[in-house]
Write a structure and sequence with these properties.
three-stranded antiparallel β-sheet, alpha+beta
C-alpha cells in the first residue's frame, strides 16, 4: 500500500546570515524610532504597522531587498513557476507588543507574501488550506507525526529569519510575550507578461 502526499503548500524559511548584525540593528532602530509613525490597532494602541507602505524602497533597506528578490526567485523556481520577473508592490514595518496578537488573515491582490524578523517573538501560525476543501466536516484525529492531520502549523520567529509563502495562505500572529517584536512584511506580484495565452496578464 502506498500513500502519496500530493499538492502540498510550500513555505520557504531562510536565515539571512549575510545581513550583518549591524545592519539588522539599523533596521531595528528605524522601526523603533519615535519618528516612525504607525497605524495603530484599535485593541492595542502600541501595536500596528508603519504608514510607510514602500519601506523596502528606502536606501537603508537595499541589501535586504536584494536578498528578498534572490530568495523569491529561488522559491518560484523550486515550484516550477514560469515568470518574466517579479516586483515588490508594498512593504511595511510591524510592531507587536506584549499581549498582542493578530486575527487570521491572508494577503489579497498578491502572489507571494513574506516577512523578515528583526527580533525573536511570538509564533506565526499557518492554517492548512486543505481542511476547508472537504464537502463534509470530518472529525480528524490529530497525530503529531502525521502532517496530514495537522490543521495548522507553528513557526517560531528568530532574528534574521525570512519567510516566504503563497499569499492565499491564511495565518495569524499568536499572542506575543516579551519585549516589542519588530518585523518587515511585504507582498510580491509578477512583472511583465504572466500566464498562458488565453489568460495572460501584463503587469
Amino acid at each position: 500500500m502506498e500513500f502519496r502526499n500530493l499538492f502540498p503548500t510550500t513555505i520557504l524559511g531562510e536565515n539571512l546570515s549575510n545581513i550583518s548584525s549591524l545592519k539588522n540593528q539599523e533596521y531595528y532602530n528605524f522601526l523603533n524610532n519615535p519618528k516612525t509613525i504607525y497605524t495603530l490597532d484599535e485593541d492595542n494602541k502600541d501595536s500596528g504597522y508603519t504608514i510607510i507602505q514602500n519601506l523596502l524602497n528606502i536606501p537603508l533597506f537595499s541589501d535586504l531587498k536584494t536578498q528578498i528578490f534572490k530568495y523569491a526567485r529561488l522559491y518560484l523556481d523550486k515550484l516550477g513557476h514560469k515568470y518574466e520577473d517579479i516586483q515588490i508592490i508594498n512593504s511595511w514595518g510591524t510592531r507587536t507588543v506584549n499581549g498582542q496578537k493578530s486575527q487570521q488573515h491572508n494577503h489579497s491582490n498578491s502572489y507571494i507574501s513574506g516577512v523578515y524578523y528583526l527580533s525573536n517573538g511570538s509564533d506565526i501560525l499557518f492554517f492548512n488550506p486543505q481542511m476547508k476543501k472537504w464537502i463534509f466536516t470530518p472529525e480528524i484525529e490529530f497525530k503529531k507525526d502525521n502532517p496530514l492531520t495537522h490543521e495548522s502549523y507553528y513557526i517560531t520567529p528568530t532574528s534574521s529569519l525570512l519567510l516566504l509563502f503563497p499569499s492565499y495562505l491564511y495565518h495569524q500572529i499568536e499572542k506575543h510575550k516579551g519585549p516589542d517584536r519588530f518585523s518587515i512584511a511585504f507582498n510580491i506580484i509578477p512583472k511583465g507578461e504572466f500566464g498562458s495565452p488565453t489568460g495572460k496578464l501584463y503587469l
